Amino acid sequence: MTQKVLFLDEIHDATKDYAALAQKCDIQHVGTTSREQFLKECKEGKYDGFVAIYRTFTTLGKVGRFDKELCDALPASIKAVCHYGAGYDQVDVAPFTERGIQVSNVQGAADAATALTNVYLMLGCLRNFGHAAISLRQGNWIGDVPLGHDPDGKVLGIMGMGGIGRQVRDYVKPFGFEKIIYYNRSRLSPELEGGCHYVTLDELYAQADVISVNVPLNAATRHMINSESISKMKDGVIIVNTARGPVIDEQALVDGLNSGKISSAGLDVYEHEPKINPGLLKNPQALLLPHFGTFTIETHRKMEEAVLNNIETFLKTGKVATIVPEQNGKF
């Protein structure tokens, strides 16, 4: 009997891989819907017999969070949720684990593009390029743009040394930073450290001239950077965040920028996106992007290919290829 897979969103770039998968299973797409409608259809048995679900960030606008309520409403046949994206904070993993449903994310495919975005923001903040661009468009050649800084002699602190953090490290090595330090939940092997120095979080705050944020969003990291942690940082510190917005208390960040404690901030993610704190929009020392880190054709294709591979691997073996860390060893 042909296995059935439910797609809550579309495939846009990995069309060849999608066509190949469609030859091996029965794919059904959910069109325009709402959370209420989807839950109702689940309870009525419309999706009975489906074994896996494909979801993306835009699924949130259709059916809301993948929380306990939604998990409990899914048919008993569902055994895998395959998510498009490295971050999966829209999925509450615990109830799915309890129900025996595997959750996969995209691991590695987005590292290079996200890290390049991080480096762009880092250099832009060091050199005040964002402020200069604003000044130029306002009809001022240089205006009141302050002198920037070179990376030479500076300490870069990387918060989170997973795939993206390590890619940031590799990209910036030729730039002349005096030292690269990092904080992680646990120290990496010497091979993965790549010459960086492991420090405590407080040591990173105290030593870093530039802080690159690359941690996942969870209960432990929400508002990890707040008024207290900012007070421990160097005067004139630069903060770059391409991870998740709620890792930083945005108002505390605005206050730090306004006081000069933080000289510049480079952000691709926001606490309440797509809404942005007006204090960030008003401050020329905030270099802002609209969650643009993976916004390339090549990266989108690689990420879609990775999700389709998770689905196909699950259909073949009963296990997804890249299960989320919370579920390691549980399936």
Automatic annotation (TrEMBL):
Keyword NAD attributed: no
Domain of life (superkingdom): Eukaryota
Domain D-isomer specific 2-hydroxyacid dehydrogenase catalytic: 5-324
InterPro entries reported for this sequence: D-isomer_2-hydroxyacid_DH, D-isomer_2_OHA_DH_cat_dom, D-isomer_DH_CS, D-isomer_DH_CS1, D-isomer_DH_NAD-bd, NAD(P)-bd_dom_sf
Pfam families attached to this UniProt entry: 2-Hacid_dh, 2-Hacid_dh_C
Keywords, sorted A to Z: Oxidoreductase
Residue ranges occupied by any D-isomer specific 2-hydroxyacid dehydrogenase NAD-binding domain in the UniProt entry: 120-293
Gene Ontology terms for molecular function: glyoxylate reductase (NADPH) activity; hydroxypyruvate reductase [NAD(P)H] activity; NAD binding
SUPFAM superfamilies on file: Formate/glycerate dehydrogenase catalytic domain-like, NAD(P)-binding Rossmann-fold domains
Gene3D superfamilies referenced in this protein's UniProt entry, alphabetically: NAD(P)-binding Rossmann-like Domain
GO cellular component terms, semicolon-separated: cytosol
Extent of the signal sequence: none
Family statement drawn from the similarity comment of this UniProt entry: Belongs to the D-isomer specific 2-hydroxyacid dehydrogenase family.
Name of the featured protein: YALI0D25256p
Native source species: Yarrowia lipolytica (strain CLIB 122 / E 150)
